[in-house]
Amino acid sequence: MPIVFSDIGKAASDLLAKDFGAPGAIKLEAKSTASNGVTFTVAGSKDSKTGAIAGDLKTKYADKSRGLTLTETWTTANVLSAEAELADALAKGVKVNIVGALVPHAGAKNAKVSLEYKHAAVATRAALDLFKGPLATADFAVHHDGILFGAETAHDLASGNITKYNLAAGFATPEYALAVHATNKLDTFAASYFHKISKDVQAAGRATWDRKSGANVTIEVATKYALDKDAFVKAKIDNSGRLGLGYTQVLRPGVKINLGGFFDTTRLAENVHKVGLSLTLEA
Predict the structure, then answer these.
(1) Above 80 in pLDDT, residue 172?
(2) What share of residues in the chain are helix, strand, coil (percent, to 5)?
(3) Which Pfam families does this one have (predicted)?
(4) Domain count of the chain?
């Protein structure tokens, strides 16, 4: 299957970043689907430190026969957004996406049009952000026999400057994956690995170096262990002593709870740790 640029190294990134609760917050997400296929999602979170509550209401309709998906979102920050996606209608492997956003009280607005094409071992994407710049972005990725390569760039049309260019390469199999990224205009370099040790155990690691920071290299490792088909635990730690722990449990079909947090092992007696909880309900 063709992969996009952001998929290179994704297995390691997901293991290192996801399922560690909602550090410093309590989150609730409820999903329901009507008989005509319309999906409603209500999500909210409360910051444990400030007590601030934020949320959003999302409505999604998908017409699979036409490849059309419509999504509308309204947030507690009074941001209205709408998204239309058309997949495989113009041609096989072509996806068109249009996103618009409006902040009524501030009079701010934004619109973005993107095009994606996937075929065999090649995938490419291009997007135009109409109100920021305008800013044009593009990326591509190719793969052959597990070898992956991709590039990404962004161009500010108003100033004529190239604002971003990134490169990535890797090698992936069903059991393990390796990836190397050069980002931030080739100033930041990262090497990562993912290993599916068994059906119950996974491991990942990443080393990152920013040439502007001198000789310092950041290293982080993570592991995931499936307790059974409905529960798993995760742990990660980096070379600065920051420890992340997570526990995910499916209580019953459609009900999932995730507990976790990040702890500074160099300052255990201080109030610098963040714990959180998220609950997802789906019907």
Answers:
(1) yes
(2) 5, 65, 30
(3) Porin_3
(4) 1
